[in-house]
TrEMBL record:
<comment type="similarity">
    <text>Belongs to the Mg-chelatase subunit H family.</text>
</comment>
<dbReference type="GO" id="GO:0015979">
    <property type="term" value="P:photosynthesis"/>
</dbReference>
<dbReference type="Pfam" id="PF11965">
    <property type="entry name" value="DUF3479"/>
</dbReference>
<keyword id="KW-0067">ATP-binding</keyword>
<keyword id="KW-0602">Photosynthesis</keyword>
<dbReference type="GO" id="GO:0005524">
    <property type="term" value="F:ATP binding"/>
</dbReference>
<keyword id="KW-0547">Nucleotide-binding</keyword>
<feature type="domain" description="Magnesium chelatase subunit H N-terminal">
    <location>
        <begin position="3"/>
        <end position="159"/>
    </location>
</feature>
<dbReference type="InterPro" id="IPR003672">
    <property type="entry name" value="CobN/Mg_chltase"/>
</dbReference>
<keyword id="KW-0149">Chlorophyll biosynthesis</keyword>
<protein>
    <recommendedName>
        <fullName>magnesium chelatase</fullName>
        <ecNumber>6.6.1.1</ecNumber>
    </recommendedName>
</protein>
<keyword id="KW-0436">Ligase</keyword>
<dbReference type="InterPro" id="IPR022571">
    <property type="entry name" value="Mg_chelatase_H_N"/>
</dbReference>
<feature type="domain" description="CobN/magnesium chelatase">
    <location>
        <begin position="163"/>
        <end position="214"/>
    </location>
</feature>
<dbReference type="Pfam" id="PF02514">
    <property type="entry name" value="CobN-Mg_chel"/>
</dbReference>
<dbReference type="GO" id="GO:0016851">
    <property type="term" value="F:magnesium chelatase activity"/>
</dbReference>
<comment type="pathway">
    <text>Porphyrin-containing compound metabolism.</text>
</comment>
Amino acid sequence: MSRIVVITGFESFNLDLYRQAAQLAQSRCPDLDIQIYSDRSLSQEPEIIENALKDADVFFASLIFDYDQVIWLRERAENIPIRLVFESALELMSLTRLGKFVIGDKPKGMPKPIKFILSKFSSGKEEDKLAGYLSFLKTGPKLLKFIPAKKVQDLRNWLIIYGYWNAGGNENFASMCWTIAEKYLDIEVGEIPEPIETPNMGLLHPEYEGYFTSPP
C-alpha cells in the first residue's frame, strides 16, 4: 500500500474536511493510504507524524512556516521519494521533488524555457530564485498549455497537482491524490476529473446549488 502524508498549516478547522476528501480518494483507490495532519499536530503528536513519515511514499505540505517545525520536517522528510511543498518556508519548499523536477536549495538545471519563465518572477539573484517559485505557483497552472508535455512532464504534473490543491474542495483534493497515485505510484485510477474552479469572489445562497459570480 502506498502512503501519502499531508500536513497543512493554519488548517486545524479544516481537518475533518480534508479527511473526508481523503476517504473519497481512498474509496476509488483502496491501495492508497492518505494520512492528514495539521501544523498543530506537529506540536501535539510528533511521534505519530514521525511514524507516518517513515513509511511514506509522498510528503505533501502547505503553509508551514514555523522555523522549528520546518527544520523538524526537513530532517524526517528529506528521504521520502516524492515531496510536494507549496506556499511554505523556503527551507521546506526546497525539498520539493517530483520525478526529475527538483527545486533544491540552489535551483538549477531547469529546461531553458522554464528558466526564462522563472526569470520573470525574481531578480535573477541566486537567493531570490526560490522566492520566484512562490510567484510562479500563482501563474503557473495558467501556463500549462504552453508547456510541452513530453520534455518537462514532471514540471507539468507539478503544476497540475498544484492546480487541484489551489482550487480547493473535496473533489479537487481527491483528484489531486488520484493524479499523484496514477502518475507516480503505479496505481491505476482511470479517468480523473478536471479541476473544479471556484472564483476568488462570489455569492452563495443556501437554496441554490453552486454560486453566483455576480448579483443575480
